[in-house]
Amino acid sequence: MENVFHISNCSMENQIKFATCTLLGSALTWWNSHVKTVGHDVAHAMTWINLKKKMTDKYCPRGEIKKLEIEMWNLKVKGTDVVSYNQRFQELALMCARMFPEESDKIEKYVGSLPDMVHECVMASKPKTMQDAIELATELMDKKICTFAQRQSENKRKQDDNQQQQQNKRQNTGRAYAAGSGEKKPYRGSKPLCSKYNYHHDGQCAPKCHKCNRVGHLACDCRSTANANTANNQRGTGAGQKPTCYECGAHGHFKRDCPKLKNNNRGNQGGNGNAPAKVYVVGRAGTNPDSNVVMGTFLLNNRCASILFDTSADRSFVSTAFSSQIDITPSTLDHYYDVELADGRIIGLNVIIRGCTLNFLNHPFNIDLMPIELGSFDVIIGMDWLAKYQAVIVCAEKIFRIP
C-alpha cells in the first residue's frame, strides 16, 4: 500500500480514504464498524501510522508474532535447498522486525544458519547487504551441487570402465591349467592364437601396460609400484635385450639419458631462453575424492574459485575463463615460461596478473597468477606461492596450513 501511495503521489490527507476503500470481507466490516462508532470525519482524520497499528493489533496479535519469531530463530537450510531458505527467511523477517533493529543483525542471523559447506566463504566475504549475502550463498551452493553431481558421474563412469576392463580381461585370457598337477592343458576352443602375446582371443589385442608389462590395462591405470625402466634393465641384462626409451622409442638407453631431451634442454638454455615451469592442468583429480591432492573452494578477488594446491607446479595459474572475472589488467613479462601440461604439450606464457587477493577464512593473501587453459580447477597454486608463505601440506588429512 505504501508503494502505491508513492507511485500515485497520494497526499497524506487522502491516504486513509484510499487505503480503506480497498478493504474486503471481514476487514471492511471491521472498518465500517469503527466509522460508525467514532464518526466519518474522525475516522478519516486518522494518520496512516495509526491505521497500521490498529490493523496490526487486530490481525497480527502478539501471540502469533511470537510463534513467527520462534520459527525465525530455529530456521535453517534443509540439505542444500538454499532457495527455499531464502524465501522463508525474507517472509519472516518482514513480520519479525523487532528481532533485527539493524541490517547487520539480519545478515548475521542469515549467514549463521547456512550449512558448513558455504558458511565460511560467505562469512569471509563480509556482505554489506542482505541481497549480497543471498546472492553469494546461492552461487556457492549451486557450485557445490554441480561439483557433487560431476563427481558422482565421474565415479560411476570409472566403475563402469573398471568393470568393462575386467570383463575384457576375462574374455581375452584363454589360458587353462590342470588342477593339482600344474601342467598346462591344451587349448580346445575356437579362438585364434595371438602371435603378439601368445594366447587365444578374438578381435583386437587387450591393452598392455608398459610399466608392469601386464595385459588388461594401460599405464595410466597401473597400480604397480615397480619402475618400468628397472624392469627393462632386468630384462636387458638377463635376456640379452636392451632397455627401451619411453621418450623417443629407441633401444639402448633410458628416458633420463635420452639425447632428444638433452638437445631440447640445450636449445632452451642457448636459444630462446625460456624458463621451464610445470603445472597439473588437464586431469581428473578434481572429480576423484580418492586423489592424493589438496583442494577446496575459496574466494579470489571476492569470487568463489575451486583451487588445487599442487607442489609439482613451479608457478601459480588461473584459468582463462575465470581470469576474465578479475578486474586487473594483465602484465607482460620480458621472457616466456615454457609450461608443461599434463598431456605432455609445452606452451609458452609471458602474461601474468599481479596483485590478486586470496581470502582464506577471512585472511587475505596476495598472489600473482598466470592465465592458462585449465581443466577441473579455476586456480592452481604452485610452489612460488606455497614457499613464499611457508605453507605446510598435511597429506594424510588433505589440508594445508599457513603458519
UniProtKB/TrEMBL annotation:
Residues 208-224, 245-260 form the CCHC-type domain. It comes from Tanacetum coccineum. Residues 151-186 are annotated as: Disordered. GO terms for molecular function: RNA-directed DNA polymerase activity. This is Reverse transcriptase domain-containing protein. Gene3D superfamilies: Acid Proteases, Zinc finger, CCHC-type. Pfam families: Retrotrans_gag, RVP_2, zf-CCHC. Transmembrane segments: none annotated. Keywords: Metal-binding, Nucleotidyltransferase, RNA-directed DNA polymerase, Transferase, Zinc, Zinc-finger. SMART domains: ZnF_C2HC. InterPro entries: Peptidase_aspartic_dom_sf, Retrotrans_gag_dom, RTL1-rel, Znf_CCHC, Znf_CCHC_sf. Residues 162-171 have a biased composition (Low complexity).
